[in-house]
Amino acid sequence: MISRLESEPLDDDLKKDLYLLKSYYFLDQKKYDEAIKPLISAVEFASSAKEKARYAYILGQLYEKQNNSKEAYEYFKKVGEYKPDYDLEFNAKLKLLKNYSGKSEEYAMKELKQMLNEDKYAEYQDIIYYTMGEAQFGRNNITEAITNFNLSLRKNNGNSPLKAEAYYKLGNINYDNHEFVMAKKYFDSCLVAMVKTDERYIDIQNLSSNLTEIAINLETITLQDSLIKISKMSKEEQMALATGIRKKQLEDEANRKNAEKNVSGNLASKNQLAQADAQMGLQGKTMDRINTSSFFAYNETAKQTGIEEFTKKWGNIRLEDNWRRYNKSSSDYFEEAKVSADEIKLTDVEVNSILGNYPKNPEQVEEAELKIRNAMLQLGVLYRKNL
After folding, report:
1. What CATH number is attached to the domain comprising 57?
2. Which of 143, 147, 158, 319 yields a CA-CA distance of 20 to 30 A from 135?
3. Is-contact 60 95, C-beta < 8 A?
4. Angle at which helices 180-193 and 300-314 pack, to 10 degrees?
5. Is residue 366 assigned to a domain?
6. 322 assigned to some structural domain
7. Closest to 190 measured CA to CA, from 179, 202, 180
8. Residue 182's Cα: distance from chain center in Å?
9. Would residue 281 count as lying in a domain?
10. 202, exposed or middle or buried, with CB in 10 Å at 0-12, 13-18, 19+?
11. Cα–Cα distance for residue pair 290/285, rounded to 1 Å
12. Residues of the chain with pLDDT under 50
């Protein structure tokens, strides 16, 4: 039918509609290469600048899918020439900087950082950081990419699709680096934020499932190795380690209370606080490596899932009594708490409680080493079977 209509004498509006239909026909079959040519024709026959801008933006996205940064850059540049609305212009500018391949590699990052400092882009910082992450990832600057994807999550203000993309990128980066515990946690968080109709959802679900036992065994090795190291420390070294951990716990608790007090009524800041907690859960390397518990609140993946599901239903709400009330007072700034190690005096019982159930004799050390060997044996099977 499309081929027959192409041979008919049609006016420009109908030609535009036909080329759009043809492009969509190929897009629906995921034949992205073949969707480009008719969409270029649709731009030519479109009568309004608004339509031309939209089609040019989609062409830029299609060239991105082909990893053709040069053509993508040209079409995102054309979007600006058609004087689009603010949102499309802003997103096209980000795409331009992401696909920039000029002589100065620092130019794009400099421009993106400048955008972070402009008040008119304040509510878009999560998108800007994500774009910076993509640009760094494209240049194989993996460490910088990870930093920016995490900053995007910290600044995210209820943008679930963007949150899902950031978690997905971080999950894949950690998976490729064989950091399977972190990959599992990021994929789990991605599944919470991502709509179930996303074509990647089932694949991510399978990846996460395959990593479950692998992550458990890796955490077993890390935990038992840490406990064995603690058992070999002197009493003074154990006291210093426990004091440092307790100091960090007190500072984190004080900072959280200050943050809750200061962001009261400010939805954006409240969401940043929740994201900060989520990231601490994903990346924290405190006593999770030393203490283990079956209590659900100590399960960081479950806690992150709970935060996401609660936020979807109720919005970004601070932990407090009468939380349904709206409190208009707000402040985004507070001074970070500092606790002096000299102020912390721990008893032997408290030290043992903080450091966990580490081996106290050679038999218990051997028991811990056996757990490590068994976990390694299981990993050998699981890597072959699940990966």
Report:
1. 1.25.40.10
2. 158
3. yes
4. 20
5. no
6. no
7. 202
8. 12
9. no
10. exposed
11. 9
12. 270, 280-295, 322-332
- The three-point CA angle 281-282-283 to 5° equals 100
Q: Where are the alpha helices (DSSP H) in the chain?
A: 2-6, 12-28, 32-45, 49-65, 69-81, 86-98, 105-116, 125-138, 142-155, 160-176, 180-193, 201-231, 235-262, 267-283, 300-314, 348-355, 362-386
CA distance 278 to 152: 13
**Six-digit token string for 159:** 């943008």
Nearest-angstrom CA–CA distance, 199 and 28: 13
pLDDT at 329: 41
Q: 322-352 pLDDT, tens per residue?
A: 444 444 344 445 567 787 877 788 888 888 8
Q: Residue 199: left (phi > 0), alpha (psi -120 to 50), or beta?
A: alpha
Per-residue buried b or exposed e for 204-229, using 16+ beta carbons within 10 Å of the residue's own CB = bbebbebbebbbebbbbbbbbebbbe
Q: Are 112 and 135 in contact (CB under 8 A)?
A: yes
Q: pTM, whole model, 2 decimals?
A: 0.69
| pLDDT score recorded for residue 299 | 59
Nearest-Å Rg of the Cα atoms of the chain is 26
Q: Structurally, how many domains does the chain consist of?
A: 1
Residue 1 lies in a domain: yes
Q: Residue 85 sits in which domain range?
A: 1-101
Structure tokens at 25: 């026909």
